[in-house]
Amino acid sequence: MTGDPASSVFTTTGWDGGERLMAADLHFARLRRHAIRLGISLPEEIESRVYDALAEAEVPGESQVASDQAPFLVMISVSPAGEVQIIPRLNTAWPARMSAISMAAPIWSPEVRGTKHGDWQPYIEAREAAAAHEADISLLFDDDALVDGDRCMPVLLDADGVAYHPKPSQGALDSVTLEQIRAGVEASGIPIREARLTLSMILRASEMIVLGSGMGVQALASIDGRAIGEARGRLFEAARAAWVERVENAWLSREEVGA
Description:
Shape: globular
Largest sheet: 10 strands, mixed
Number of domains: 2
CATH architecture of the largest domain: Alpha-Beta Barrel
CATH class of the largest domain: Alpha Beta
Oligomer: single chain
Strand content: 25-35%
Distance between the termini: 27 Å
CATH topology of the largest domain: D-amino Acid Aminotransferase, Chain A, domain 2
Helix content: 25-40%
Number of strands: 15
């Protein structure tokens, strides 16, 4: 990460330690969307180049997570010159009830906000700040509106029975994890909508979860020391069930993505 948003575009997805990536089709599609916004031209054979690199990659150790998370992760990045890089790493386990701190969201231009770009250092610093405050994650606010998490998308269940997530038009990332679990959660009777999420809305929420390709679905119990509804309630149960189905079935080989 160079400090220049246009220096790269990236995505991070699950890796089985062999020849398959989790939801690779969705991640390559997002990589293309974000590259267009950042003015980066992806190599036409991007899928083949990633899988070629994956075939040479070393497994970074023994898996440390349960079966509801991908055992390994791989970050796929592409530079404006078309250089493709992959960085495998072990996935991380999370506590059953997570805690968060609130921080100001970094401000970028409209073209950059909501993309996975080369100036990711503010998110790394937000992660470090959470650890320094003995919290698990940082939630990032623009004025009084929640727009993102340091490595996750936050989703809350409001008293009206609807699950809300931050608006991409306000700078939130378009979550591949949310894309994968949306149908399962809505089939359980919980509609999912985007909204402007204020701190007062968060504090009155029935419950809150956070989503990410690495963490999967986790329950968020508090923010800045204040409890948020009922951790691991019906939203968590529905989202986790949908995610576990994906962990079991969403792995794609190069042949399956046409690489």
